[in-house]
Amino acid sequence: MAKKHILIVDDDPLMARMYENKMQTDGYDVAVASNGEEALLAVRKKKPDLMLLDVMMPKMNGVETLKALKGDAKTKNIPIIILTNLGDNPDDIQKAKDLGALDYLVKSQISLKELSDRVKKELGN
Questions:
Q1: CATH class label, 5-123
Q2: Which residues are within 8 A (CB) of 36 and not within 5 positions of it... i.e. 6 or more apart?
Q3: pLDDT of residue 87
């Protein structure tokens, strides 16, 4: 059975590497993009089974990326988990969910194990 593919989109190389290492350890095929533009290109190359998407990034932020992906018939069904340090403002959470995000997680409030469990739950393994 083919490995599930996860795209991690985060402009912080240390965070991206930490998430990448954890997801690879969990048995996933992982790609990393450092901004929304790179994410859109990566999705065209290989459609992920799930995306972890930061919000505050250069060039194209996470909200713009989410809108672009959910507005395209080819990518609208990709499950996207927002992973941010913006905090848990209810308006931000609702906006992300209204745009089609599966979940909205605050980096400082979730452990790697909790993130791993959330990804496993979504991918059904």
A1: alpha beta
A2: 9, 57, 59, 60, 61, 62, 64, 65, 68
A3: 74
